[in-house]
């Protein structure tokens, strides 16, 4: 089995939210905090070049990036020079513009290469909310031990003390909903988790937070 096919098998098995089909790429919505916690690499970067590589059945796009800041992945790869993605959008490939924007990019590392796709969290940096930027810097990491459970039908109730109920699904906004844009699920005292927003540092002594 080639290295490419080995990666594809591992990628599909480790990312159950991904559904690759011929017509389109379909992804289950994921809260930015989960996208952060489930990624090997999280960076802010500007794309400065791209090259179509002839590996894999449909080719791979290799983006050359100028890393501005790393939020996750220091122990794995302290500096990222290239980001790899499928060349085809129908296979969840990401299209990034060269020398135009700074991006927030999340991805997984396989055989020393960083891979990303449409089911990963990526966004133009200037479109991120202040809360999301604060989450990247500190808050999301505080909640990696918490579980964010999507609510698709009301009412929804937490089934364990470390759960935060994600209500954006009810309005069909998903990752672009209000909770996704403005809240982080933070671990409090005794293993309890609750939604947090605000300017002050999270108070871990608070268990019964009412937000949202």
What are the salient characteristics of this protein?
212 residues, alpha+beta, OB fold (Dihydrolipoamide Acetyltransferase, E2P), Tissue inhibitor of metalloproteinase-1. Chain B, domain 1, 2 domains, 5-stranded mixed barrel, two-stranded antiparallel sheet, 4 helices, 12 strands, globular, disordered N terminus, disordered C terminus, metal ion binding, disulfide bond, secreted, zinc
What is the CATH top level name of the largest domain? Mainly Beta
Shape: globular
Total DSSP E strands: 12
Helical fraction: 10-25%
Q: If classified by CATH, what would the architecture of the largest domain be?
A: Beta Barrel
Q: What is the number of independent domains?
A: 2
Instruction: List low-confidence stretches.
Output: 1-22, 205-212
The spatial strand order of the largest sheet comes to 3-4-5-7-6
Helix count from the secondary structure assignment: 4
Query: Separation of termini?
Result: 49 Å
Strand content: 25-35%
Largest sheet: 5 strands, mixed, barrel
CATH topology of the largest domain: OB fold (Dihydrolipoamide Acetyltransferase, E2P)
Mean pLDDT: 84
Radius of gyration: 18 Å
Computed structural class: alpha+beta
Order of helices and strands: HEEHEEEEEEHEEHEE
Briefly, what is this?
Keywords: Disulfide bond, Extracellular matrix, Metal-binding, Metalloenzyme inhibitor, Metalloprotease inhibitor, Protease inhibitor, Secreted, Signal, Zinc. One of its GO terms (cellular component) is extracellular matrix. With 212 residues, the chain is of the alpha+beta class.
């Amino acid at each position: 089995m080639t290295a490419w096919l080995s990666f594809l098998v591992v990628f599909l098995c480790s990312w159950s939210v991904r559904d690759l089909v011929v017509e389109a790429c379909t992804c289950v919505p994921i809260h930015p905090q989960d996208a952060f916690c489930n990624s090997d690499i999280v960076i802010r970067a500007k794309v400065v070049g791209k090259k179509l590589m002839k590996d894999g059945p449909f080719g791979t796009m290799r983006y050359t990036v100028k890393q501005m800041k790393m939020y996750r992945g220091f122990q794995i790869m302290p500096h990222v020079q290239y980001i790899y993605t499928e060349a085809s959008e129908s296979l969840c490939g990401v299209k990034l513009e060269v020398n135009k924007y700074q991006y927030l990019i999340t991805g997984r590392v396989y055989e020393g290469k960083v891979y990303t796709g449409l089911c990963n969290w990526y966004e133009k940096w200037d479109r991120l909310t202040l809360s999301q930027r604060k989450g990247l810097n500190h808050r999301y990491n505080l909640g990696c031990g918490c579980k964010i459970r999507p609510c698709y039908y009301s009412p929804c109730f937490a089934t364990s003390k470390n759960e935060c109920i994600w209500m954006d699904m009810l309005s069909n906004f998903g990752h672009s909903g209000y909770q996704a844009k403005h809240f982080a699920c933070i671990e409090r005292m005794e293993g309890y988790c609750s939604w947090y927003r605000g300017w002050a540092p999270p108070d871990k002594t608070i268990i019964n937070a009412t937000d949202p």
